[in-house]
Specification:
Elements lengths: L3 E7 L5 E6 L2 H9 L15 E8 L2 H12 L3 H8 L3 H8 L2 H4 L5
Antiparallel strand pairs: 1-2, 1-3
Length: about 100
C-alpha cells in the first residue's frame, strides 16, 4: 500500500511550513539540504518535523494540506500540541468571535 504524508515543519525563523509527500524521510532530507534552493525552507534551515498525518489517498492528503495551509499560526500550533480545545476555539468564525489571543 502506498502512503502519502501531510506534514508541518518548524523553520529556524520560527515559522511553519506545511507540505505533502509520498516519502517523508526523503522529503525532510531534501528540505534540510536546501533542495531546489528557491523554496520557502531553503533560507530557513534547519527545519524540524513537528507534525504529520499519514494518508492512503493522495486526494485526501492534498485536501488536508490545503486546509492546513489556510490556518493561522496559533491553529497550527494547537494541532501540533494536540490541544483540541484551542483548535476548536481557533476554528470559530473570525468575524463572529474576533481575535481572542490567549
Amino acid at each position: 500500500m502506498k502512503f502519502y504524508y501531510v506534514y508541518i515543519l518548524l523553520c529556524s525563523d520560527n515559522t511553519y511550513y506545511t507540505g505533502m509527500t509520498n516519502d517523508l524521510d526523503r522529503r525532510l532530507n531534501q528540505h534540510n539540504e536546501g533542495h531546489k534552493n528557491l523554496n520557502y525552507t531553503s533560507s530557513r534551515l534547519p527545519v524540524e518535523l513537528k507534525w504529520f498525518l499519514q494518508c492512503t489517498n493522495p486526494s485526501e492528503a492534498i485536501r488536508v494540506e490545503k486546509q492546513i495551509k489556510g490556518w493561522s499560526r496559533r491553529k497550527k500550533k494547537a494541532l501540533i500540541d494536540e490541544n483540541w480545545t484551542d483548535l476548536v476555539e481557533f476554528s470559530k468564525n473570525y468575524k463572529e468571535h474576533g481575535n481572542k489571543i490567549k
